[in-house]
Design brief:
By secondary structure, this protein is mainly α. It has a domain at about 35-155: Tetratricopeptide repeat domain (Serine Threonine Protein Phosphatase 5, Tetratricopeptide repeat), CATH 1.25.40. It has 20 helices and two strands. Strands 1-2 form a two-stranded antiparallel sheet. Helix 4 packs antiparallel against helix 5 (about 105-120), helix 5 (about 105-120) packs antiparallel against helix 6 and helix 7 (about 140-155) packs antiparallel against helix 8. The structure holds zinc ion. Zinc ion (ZN) binds near residues 356, 369 and 375. Its main location: membrane. GO terms for molecular function: iron ion binding. Pfam families: TPR_7 (PF13176), Zn_ribbon_LapB (PF18073). It is a single-pass membrane protein.
Length: about 375
């Protein structure tokens, strides 16, 4: 008993002194850190507020060098480098962070995400993809998946995009997934069509229809597939079915009908009549330029008199340069004026993205400018102004 009391009497003051020393050391260290780190933060912040990014970077670099453990400063510095377009320096900062063994799981995921952003902004999509993959299973998984999907869409890797959508966790994305999957399958079907793998294209279009029954694209692509196979009659019959169910598709479908298709239907007057009626009924409801052009083309093909009167009728409804130029061409009066009008109307026949204003003569389901899906109206530029 005496022995234990002696230890206690001796141990208590020693413990007290050690505790005091430890607290004093921590406190002094914290004082040093609190003095240097916040000063660097405030100085850097002041420079940033004054839009003096060079000076802010100098201050942060000095602070990071004198205290390499400061995680937040590394993030601030990396973000500044990236914003200034110095992607290699931003990458080095984030890679340096990731190399640290003492980094918390949350900060590690954050550094990984920032590194992926550096590569994305630098346009190094394959390296960005590699940087995003380790984020699976972390708190940043869903935003990493969104970024990965963006990369697959940019690189037209529809196979990977499809696989990713099957396991996406972001609720907001999930709501749009069926539409996106439908487009990915249609894109793959188009690739198959280009390689003349028509059976594969047909199977992909059937899948596209199954994932998004309300989507208008699979029906239109089906018409394209039949035309690619030279099955003109079936293509027109299918187009009539599609446009009956979804009248908004007729301008795009009518854009595919040219003289060769009407020639192919020559011995089927009933089908030609059906096409004529569909075009006419649609035009009466909505005066689409594509429908107008197809209407005149089919009436001329059927030998109907005054087919060109539709152009005059259209100009009466809308001041249309496209209709005027086409009418002039029919009259064959003055080739000089005809050429001038033709040149003036060409830009008016473009399609334009509603999101970014990108214009193209071909219709795009995904805008090459801003990557939005279905952002092109089926109207030509001239019709957007009226
Ligand atoms: Zn766009």
């Amino acid at each position: 008993m005496d022995f234990e009391w002696a230890w206690l009497l001796l141990g208590l003051p020693i413990a007290f002194i050690l505790g005091w020393l430890a607290s004093r050391l921590d406190w002094r260290q914290m004082r040093i850190l609190q003095r240097s780190a916040p000063r660097a933060y405030f100085q850097g912040l002041t420079y940033l507020l004054n839009e003096q990014q060079d000076q802010a970077i100098d201050v942060f670099v000095q602070a990071v060098q004198s205290d390499p453990d400061t995680v937040e400063l590394h993030f601030a510095l990396g973000s500044l480098f990236r914003r200034r377009g110095e992607y290699d320096r931003a990458v080095r900062v984030h890679e340096h962070l990731l190399a640290r063994a003492d980094l918390s799981a949350v900060d590690r995921a954050r550094a990984q995400w920032e590194l992926a952003q550096d590569f994305l902004k630098a346009g190094l999509l394959d390296r960005a993809e590699n940087a995003l993959r380790p984020l699976e299973g972390t708190t940043l998984e869903s935003q990493a998946q969104t970024a990965l999907l963006y990369i697959y869409e940019r690189t037209h890797d529809w196979e990977q995009a499809l696989r990713l959508t099957a396991r996406m966790t972001n609720e907001h994305e999930r709501a749009q997934l069926a539409g996106k999957q439908m487009h990915y399958l249609c894109e793959q079907a188009n690739e198959a069509m280009r390689q003349q793998a028509f059976d594969r294209a047909a199977a992909l279009l059937a899948q596209a229809k199954a994932v998004d029954a309300a989507g208008v694209r699979p029906g239109i692509e089906q018409v394209k597939l039949l035309l690619a196979q030279g099955q003109h009659r079936q293509a027109v019959e299918w187009a009539l079915q599609v446009s009956e169910k979804m009248p908004q598709t007729l301008p795009l479908l009518a854009g595919m009908w040219d003289g060769t298709i009407f020639d192919a239907l020559q011995d089927d007057q009933l089908l030609l009549q059906q096409v004529h009626t569909a075009l006419r009924v649609h035009y009466e409801t909505e005066a689409s330029l594509d429908v107008l052009l197809a209407l005149v083309a089919i009436e001329r093909h059927m030998g109907l008199p005054r087919a060109g009167a539709w152009y005059v009728e259209h100009i009466r409804r809308h001041p249309s340069l496209v209709a005027a130029a086409n009418w002039m061409e029919l009259q064959q009066q003055d080739p000089v004026i005809e050429r001038a009008l033709d040149k003036a109307m060409q830009p008016l026949l473009n399609y334009r993205c509603l999101h970014c204003g990108f214009e193209a003569r071909n219709y795009f389901w995904q805008c090459p400018g801003c990557q939005s899906w279905e952002s092109f109206p089926t109207k030509r530029v001239e019709e957007l102004h009226t």
